[in-house]
Amino acid sequence: MSSRRSLAAGSLCAAMVAVLAGCGSTPASGPNGHSTSAATSGAHAAKTAASSPTSTPKQKGRLVIYAAEGYDQAMATAFHKATGIAVKLDDMSTGPLVAKIQAEKNNPQWDVAWFDGDGTMETLNQAGLLLRHWQPANSAHYTSLGKRLQPSDGSYIPTGVTAAGAIAYNTKLVPANEVPKHWSDLLKPFFKNAVGMDNPAISGPTYPVVAGMLNLRGMAGGEKYFSQLKANGLRVFPTNKPTLQALTTGQIKVAIAQDSAEIQAMQQGAPIKIVYPTGGVTMLPGVLGIAKNAPDMAAAKAFANFVLSAQGQKVMLAKGGGDSNFNPIIQGQKPNPVRQQTGIKWNVAPVLWQAAHYSKIQTWFKDTIAG
Amino acid sequence: MTAEPDAGDRAPGPEIVRGPVGSRRPARPRTGGIPGLAPQDAVMGLGLGALALLIVLPLLAVVAQAVFPHIFGRHPDLRFDPRALTRVLQTPFDFHMLADSVLMSLGAGLAAATCGGVLALVVGRTDVPGRGLWGGLVWCTLLLPSFLMAEGWTFFLQPMGLLSRAVPEPSWLVNLFGSPWGVGAILALKFFPFAFLAVSAALPWIGGEQEAVARTLGASRWRVWYRVYLPLLLPFFASGAAIVFADVLSDFGVAITVAESHQFPLLTYGIYSAIYNIPTDFGGAGALSLLLTLAVGLAILLQLWFLGGRRFATIHSGYRPPEPVRLGAWRWPALVAVAGFFLLALGIPAGSILLESFSKSLSFGLGSYHLTLSNYAALSTQVGSRGFKALGYSLRLAAVTATAAVLLGTLLAYLGTHGSGRLGTVLEGVSLWTISIPGIILAVGYVFLWNQPWLERVHLNLYGTVWALTLAYLAGGLPYVLRFQMGSLTQLDRRLVSAARVLGAGVGRLLARVVLPLVADSVLVLWLFVLAGTTFELPASEFLYPPGHPTLAVEVNHFFNSEIYGVGTALAVTAAVILIVLVLILRGVTRRFLPAPVRGGRGSRRLEA
């Protein structure tokens, strides 16, 4: 009798759990009208799977995007409105995003990956995770810069450009005659213990800053520069937030950070101005990649094409918060007027070079500069 | 239910076999089924299997990659390649990280046990004013996630921060903040509630009868405390210290936020950067996790050896409610001390976070400072409403998880303490060990484990569904329930249980009528604790949330990353307030309706049986 009671109690609990969990996940319909709620997705996926489960992708009836861009949600909504295709978005910063993609390696669940950093995207390409030799129809409208950024094996699609590391200075602490114009100005005594930057190990857009400097000045020259910065009291913060906060509160006088974030801080009223040093700033393209055997390939391709269309570009320029402060690479699109356009020297750190030197540079930075 | 033995009703029930007189083991029914296998062994087996599935397997999935790096690759194979492991073992830096982490956690554990334990004694056994308030504030500290506390401390102590607006900030304080001492102190102040709860859960059951006997024999008040109560309470102090140790070791909310410099890197930070660095280094993370779990396992074995598996059953029929200590002239100094402690532990970080939610992002610092409601206003806009949606989603999932964790955990804890011999010790050690595993490792392990192609063929591909996330949450909450329930159930004298069994109560009735009323309070407490912890959980949520349905912490993080920190803080504060209100309401309501455990001071001698 007691075991019957515990069995009854157990099944009641299980039923309760199931009901509550079912309420928790809201079902969404795909284009073929399948409900994709948690309880049924497995069964449906199995039914609609092709005969050979390993090679042929399973149609899930929805587009899955892993993205780290401020305008990703707006774009997903706009795409859904325009095409009726259901979109499921995972929005997180680049680090966890790439870790998740890598963890799913043997059974990718994503269709589209979208973040800043072609070097990072190249590592995914070299792991064999990306669809190659395909570019959307709208790539015909690339500017010359856009065309230059396209990879030779067509493994990803550039969507816009920012500067990986521009100098932002606190206008209340840095008088006009001390405003840095060259990268070497940061080594001056005036900036002792007053320069801050993000940690490339944590902040995705920061790796190109470091890699770009090392590419520009050569490995030895670049390492020397950072060592000198460190000797002058360089402070390394985990991410943009503490870096920019340190700048605004006056703990540091200058910060090296992605210019779109710096522009956003300015727009929020922070007392900072931006300088693009004469040595040049490393170009940081936003890039979109499609999974090699994407479960919803057609939808993924449609999405990529949509992003490069006039409508998609409008969404990117208006709805992305700080990330909307980028330079478009589609003809006819105008960047946000608050962005400086003249007098910037753009350096391009070659993608393959960046990817090849990833672990070496990260390890060196961790051991020598951040440590 | 009558108290008569079921004399004439032998057929459906199991035959009861009495153990030898005076034996410590309760009478065990022998089933007619598998000889030698009692039903509770089967349930215990299932329970341990569940633990293995929820926690051990995901951990193994990550650790294995230290020596089998291609086991979850695009073309999985079992090639043995220990380079990740050897690299970690050969890097002195990694051992520094391990040593630093373990030492800091030990320190924090001892500090938290002392503060929390003493506070529990003061609040639970003396007549210091405002006891209800202090208990409530302990709850608030427990419910607030560590990353939020770290955020508050940073806002307060950073150069040009809140403190510096009031007084010129001494530089030694800023340096202390980023040092191991500072971080350890912050973590101890965040996790002391575990020690408080461990000790105060034990206090009501340590009755006054021993004290009465001792006083009759001539012992002074102090001597009674020193020779009678302290030894009885020592296991609970140690238990509290052990949980804090495990929690501090696995915490990286504070490690990332506060310890920005790498003068003393923490192991959790090493694991974090191995996973989030590019290229992703799961093998390195696995090797570091192996180091961590081995070190913790060693520490736990030491703890068990030190305590000798001693158990003190204090709930028995001779129970007499204890008398509170009258503080007399010490009342007001005690009040000041307790209030000061809470000001430090809760007031500063929570107050700073509150202030930050009312300020515009990045406006704080040089120049004038304005309070604004714009962050909260933003929450009700379209951009911010996704935050509320995530909060609702998280609360629903957390409720389900908390229910499952509490039921399963209490059942297992009961079987562990009142079943056969060593199993209880094993269970206790294992649950503590799992608490020390960083959440990010489990999260990644879940991706590996549940994203297998062959699982899709058997309709068990849980990855990407809400089930995987719920299981991960359950894995996070279950060890705490196990730990605490084993602690409280230990105090239940076996003779009470034996008496009920001899009178014909089966396991179900025993649980419902004897055990549950006595632990009902702790069941609710644990339910609320798991609810709060799950609502704010980040690492597993980030990896496992079903696409399109972010949880609360994911959204807060999203706002932080989008540079609109103010809105993120406002969202976190809103969630915390909702949880605290929920806790207050539920505690208030259930105090009236649930059978209350015996409480001292009113002379009630009820013991439901």
Structure description:
The complex is a heterodimer of chains A (371) and B (609). With 371 residues, chain A is an alpha/beta fold. Chain A is built from 13 helices and eleven strands. Chain A has two domains: 55-162 and 284-324, Periplasmic binding protein-like II (D-Maltodextrin-Binding Protein, domain 2, 3-Layer(aba) Sandwich); 163-283 and 343-370, D-Maltodextrin-Binding Protein, domain 2 (3-Layer(aba) Sandwich), CATH 3.40.190.10. Chain A has helices at 2-24, 38-48, 72-83, 94-103, 118-126, 144-149, 207-231, 240-249, 259-267, 297-307, 310-318, 351-356, 358-370; strands spanning 63-67, 87-91, 112-116, 157-163, 166-170, 195-198, 235-237, 254-257, 272-275, 281-290, 346-347. In chain A, the strands form two sheets. In chain A, strands 1, 2, 3, 4, 10 and 11 form a six-stranded mixed beta sheet that branches. In chain A, β1, α3 and β2 form a beta-alpha-beta unit. The longest helix of chain A has 25 residues, at 207-231. Chain B has 609 residues and is mainly α. Chain B folds into two domains: 37-70 and 370-609, Orthogonal Bundle (MetI-like fold); 89-309, MetI-like (MetI-like fold, Orthogonal Bundle). The model of chain B is unreliable at 1-19, 29-34 and 596-609 (pLDDT under 50). The chains are: A alpha/beta (371), B mainly alpha (609). The interface between A and B is large, with 93 and 84 residues.
